[in-house]
Amino acid sequence: MKDIARQKMSISVETMDLLNQQITLEAHASASYLAMASWCDQNAFTNSASFFYKQSEEEREHMMKIFQFINDCGGNAISPSVSNINHEFSSLEDIFESALDQEIMVTKSIHNIVKECKNNNDYNGENFLQWFVVEQLEEEKTLRDILDLFELMGRDGIALKLIDERIKTE
């Protein structure tokens, strides 16, 4: 019976498996952003903390969007387990660099799933993922723009407070 149900899915089994991996990646990103927000709160970077709380919620929304898509297609979405969250950061810049690295990893994963959808003629999966392709471009740009502020304004004292103030406009 299980094989018959999988044959009636409107996405390929390969896509479903990759999307379940993506769910875990999105959950990890959400938890990582919470850790970053906490560090920012503890170090009086309130706008950066708000930025990362918002990012955490967005990553959870991404996870849920994928989760629901899998189930809507007749697949089996798997609730993720999250571990190995870094809570130690050396600076505000370190946090934003870590966030950019994380987004680049998510982008590569999305691109890999799109490639597999193309290879498997999985048009539903490919179409669904186009929103994520655009979203990842925006996410990376936002973090690169913030990291540019460190180059422009500096990395200590008042420069950090000014950067944190600018982040509320991001």
What attributes does this structure have?
Ferritin; 0% strand
Describe the protein:
The chain has 170 residues and is an all-alpha fold. The protein has a single domain (11-78, 91-166), classed as Ferritin (Up-down Bundle), CATH 1.20.1260. It has six helices and no strands. Helix 4 runs antiparallel to helix 5 (123-153).
Oligomer: single chain
Total strands: the figure is: 0
Structural class comes to mainly alpha
CATH architecture field: Up-down Bundle
User: What average pLDDT do the residues reach?
Assistant: 93
Helix content: over 70%
What gap, in angstroms, lies between the N and C termini?
50 Å
User: What is the overall shape?
Assistant: elongated
The CATH C-level class name: Mainly Alpha
- Helices and strands, in order, run as HHHHHH
Strand composition percent: under 5%
Low-confidence stretches: none
